[in-house]
Amino acid sequence: MSFEPQIPEWGLNSFNKYQDKLIEYHNWLKDTAMKTGLISKKTEQFIWDEFIIHSLYFAKLIKKYKNQKKREIIDIGTGAGIPGIPISIVNKTNVSLVDNKQKRIYELERLVKILNLNNARPTKIDADMILKEAKNSIIVMRCYVSTTNLLKSLEKKQLKENNLTIFVSSNSKSKDILSKMFHVKQEKFLINKNNFRYIDVITDM
Ligand SMILES: C[S@@+](CC[C@H](N)C(=O)[O-])C[C@H]1O[C@@H](n2cnc3c(N)ncnc32)[C@H](O)[C@@H]1O
Predict the structure, then answer these.
(1) DSSP letter string over 141-205?
(2) Which of 30, 36, 100, 193 is the most exposed place for a label (fewest CB within 10 A)?
(3) For a substitution probing ligand 1, which of 76, 144, 167, 191 has the most ligand atoms within 8 Å of its CB?
(4) CATH code at 89?
(5) Is residue 3 part of a domain?
(6) Splitting the chain (205 residues) into consecutive groups of 10 residues, what average pLDDT does each group show?
(7) Atom 8 (ligand 1): residue with closest C-alpha?
């Protein structure tokens, strides 16, 4: 089957103009990231749909929930830059790409130079530290932690006092008992013609 760099209807207007740069990133994922073990072996279509299109929905949500101009974006457990790199391609705000593995940070530093992304900052730091210290930020996480486990380590006042909104990729539609303490809204979207994915949006409201 041939590779089709499709963009679902929800993203056509906003993201079509970034397609060339997104394809450059796609090429890096299928060549460098796969060779260096940042991602496991995947088809070109899988990389596009699951990594790039999935990431673009985080970018769409950031636009929707960004209630003031100066909010940094932090991608925790970024790995090969997912979702942080596509976000930094389509959004001018600074994006910190956080991982605790130095090798990943080195590869990402090379990548941001190749793609000429001045707003993407690979940063080696532990997730727990960032979660404690982040202020005025939108935090995104894909395949790093479940909403349930994240909520166990968060305090509600932390979200309000530090002005944080958190987006977490999610597989399940089930409502968790802990989410009663937080406001968790589940966003459902298509990554291609047939497959839906979910992102949980956690706010203090
Ligand atoms: C399963 S990968 C997910 C990568 C990427 N977000 C994605 O969707 O493909 C999890 C990443 O989290 C990083 N990681 C694990 N523990 C961490 C920690 N305590 N602090 C920061 N990063 C961590 C790993 O090095 C790895 O790159």
Answers:
(1) ESSS--HHHHHHT--HHHHHHTTEEEEEEE---PPPGGGGTSEEEEEEEESSSS-EEEEEEEE--
(2) 193
(3) 144
(4) 3.40.50.150
(5) no
(6) 93 97 98 97 98 98 81 96 98 96 98 98 96 94 93 84 93 62 89 96 85
(7) 142
